């Protein structure tokens, strides 16, 4: 299973991306599993906290270039961008407390997925970057809007246009990350707060800026416009050639 689901005591659910050989990249099957799990959790009143993380030393390396490189036009790109954009919007809208735990690499769309957390925790091995610009793309899943909500306009813009990777210390300094945990067990211990699912729901409804969802959706269309450019296709082909030579 490419996306594992586990329930713990005290209303805790954990989703783990499970494609370690692909650094937990998202393909169409992963999108479908996210949709399935969201259908389930949206109808659960007993889940207090959802933790999203990855297996095998990576959080998520974004969209699977091998799976999505065949998408050439803006219209074709939207067959992937819009569903995954909706996944992130649904995660962000959950009444459950959402925590993303970045234990390893989170780049491109993986950084966008990390940004869905109400709280973002990082391990000492965390490395996160909105590297889409290196492939002549903008964010497409809604991560730019969520990052602006998290760290403010100037810091978000710098993270996006620099296409740099940030370590756990950097992420804490910018305010993107809210805490650290070396292991999942340590994280679970740190977030074992006494409040009920009902209290969490009330606070989230009161504090959340739901207007950001419209801004998030626009990102899918902005990204699709860049997706069909020759600049993007050439950048992906160069990356895949380099990757092939490195593994050969």
Describe what this molecule looks like in 3D:
With 248 residues, this protein is an alpha/beta fold. It has a single domain, classed as 2-enoyl-CoA Hydratase, Chain A, domain 1, CATH 3.90.226. The chain has eleven helices and ten strands. It has helices at 28-41, 65-68, 74-93, 109-114, 143-151, 153-162, 168-174, 184-190, 197-207, 212-227, 230-247, and strands at residues 3-8, 12-17, 49-54, 58-60, 97-102, 105-107, 119-122, 127-129, 166-167, 179-180. Strands 1-2-3-5-7-10 form a six-stranded mixed β-sheet. A four-stranded mixed β-sheet has the order 4-6-8-9. Helix 3 (74-93) runs antiparallel to helix 10 (212-227), helix 5 (143-151) crosses helix 6 (153-162) and helix 5 (143-151) packs across helix 10 (212-227). The radius of gyration is 17 Å and the shape is globular. The two termini are 28 Å apart.
Offer a few descriptive terms.
alpha/beta, 4-stranded mixed sheet, 2-enoyl-CoA Hydratase, Chain A, domain 1, about 250 residues
